[in-house]
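To assess whether the prediction recovers the assembly geometry, we first specified each molecular entity separately, as shown.
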Amino acid sequence: MSDSELNKIILPYSISVRDLAEKMETSPIEVIKVLMANGVMASINQNVDFDTAAVVASELGFEPELEQIEEEKPEDAGEVPLWRRVIAKEADKDLQPRPPVVTMLGHVDHGKTSLLDVIRQSNVAGGEEGGITQHIGAYQAEHQGRKITFLDTPGHAAFTSMRARGAQGADIVILVVAADDGVMPQTREAANHAKAAQVPIVVALNKMDLPSANPELVKKQLSEIGLVPDEWDGDTIVVPVSATKKQGLDDLMEAILLVADNKEIKANPKGEVLGTVVEGEVDRSRGVMATLLLQNGTINVGDTILAGKAHGRIKAMFDFRGNRIQKAGPATPIMVMGLNDVPKAGDLFRVVESEKEARAIVSEMELAGKVRSIAPKVSLEELYAQLQAGEVKELRLIIKADVQGSLEPIVNSLNELAEKQSEVSILILHQETGNISESDVMLAAASDAIVLGFAVEADNAAERLAEKEGVSIRSYTIIYRLIEDIEKALKGMLKPELVERNIGRARVLATFSVSRFKVAAGCRVVDGEIRRNGHIRVVRHDQVIFDGEIGSLKREKDDVREVREGFECGIALKQFHEFEVGDTLECYVIEQESR
Ligand code: GDP
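The predicted structure of the complete assembly is given in tokenized form:
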């Protein structure tokens, strides 16, 4: 080994003073001294970037080298949208190339809208604007004779949900990052959405015209979130552009087509007709107008479609320019007229046989929806069973903590835990300091993850959304407890904490025999209600003399599920028959405690 090889030191893009010292087997004080001599004030826990660390390392006789980060493999992250599963099932011979569907995501003000607009102006081949002039939220551009479909996910209030869905509907995500502002929270969030939806990312490094643009710094930041630029031997194409100066647009289109070619973007024009709702609205003169992105099959005027819970026969159909069309094929944005209700952005749509079939499916969905709304998605208590059943393959987490100092040990311990066992992988989709927000829950919902909070709270909007979407949020104040819960969950040893909840009381007015050994009590419900699936405590002179399950609950002669306050009923217990007039029967149910 040569001398220079002996002194080589591999450094990441960012490293704490402590870790840097450790790598060089010197004391942190030495490192701090060198930093100070170079005009950098840093404490032992503070991070310095690669360039700074490299200066220190060289001064201490090392040959620094930049670490090559292994990119996180997004293949098995996130739920595969139904449309993609449908296409995957089509026979190879029926599949034909289709235009790639692209969506722009990124931090607010980084230039998504401007880029979409200039691409629209410069790349949408001329042609008469049709009768409908409204903006339809999706368009097709052309580059070198090939079409690219752009989805315009709006940046307003519900943007997170739209983004989650935009990423789901797209083949490629353009992550727009302003070169003067760099990677910001929503950049990270958007990257996470794309990864969760298994969609490849092309970075558009926008605002390159600004003197304050610092592309090298932004590339470093991108590397830190797992998007290593191809020029640094990574897999992410980073294209410098300027929406204002209309520069780099051809390169961007080129990059999109390159990624598309690697992905074999296909669909079956003769296959099952389905796609995603881009947006829906009520137009005063035309009724419900829905913008749809057709992903497989061919759709015709006169077809009956079901979009979410809205349905109807297509009376008229328009292309993105507003021209009337009779039919459309895969990856085409269309606007349709004829639905009975406004579908939600992100809803799936498909062609059905008839209105009757549509109505039948909707009532089935409503029934299933009721059942589903009670059952949470992934929960730690259920994790083991869900893993065994193959419903989940890995544990996905979103971690929020009060300070960086608690976030790091949590993440490290979880990684250690993941290494210790091989059955389940743990994927941390997002980690950040701060309270649990609506967008954290949105990401969890879109990617079937659990939100773990350490010494932080969930804000109201986040809690409401979690309840609606069945996302589980768990809060901790002791790191050890958090890790222990995850460890137990992986082994199927985390039992839900059950609590008894009193729901009503009844007074025994009479007793009567129902068979040779069985006695029932004739009662009046004095408050709350008595439920057939509840438990009963028999209280006599302030003492509980029995506690057990209900055998039957009757009103008159009929079996009933519940009896409310003020009504009389007959109650028989499974293992108790010694009722006395004047006993109080307390009814309770056993529920999982929500944390
Ligand atoms: P969005 O929130 O990501 O959709 O961002 P917008 O497209 O609305 O752009 C935000 C602001 O940045 C606007 O004032 C744009 O004029 C400006 N902007 C967008 N692209 C560029 C660019 O390439 N160069 C410069 N200098 N400004 C830009």
